[in-house]
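S1.2 Input.
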Amino acid sequence: MEIVPIEIIINTKRKGGANRLTTLKRMNQLEIYIKDIPELSPSISSVNGLKFIKQAYYNGNPNYYKIPTFQENTFILEYLKNAEQSKNLMRKLC
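S1.3 Output.
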């Protein structure tokens, strides 16, 4: 059996389009679709990273492993700008 990676590139044709909530939700839907195909492994994307960051922000609570809302993005980004707070946030993921 041969393992072949699959890479999907999404071009929104807009500056910053990949960071829009609607785009992130569509990417998440694609990940859910891929997850249901037994021949494919679960995907790894920026959406996963955002979900992990939100979960870490909420003290690692698995109920918060979701795409951040627009409001959450605002204060999570401010939180991440502080290097020490970012280190503490990342420790919560480990």
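S1.4 Remarks. The mean pLDDT is 83.
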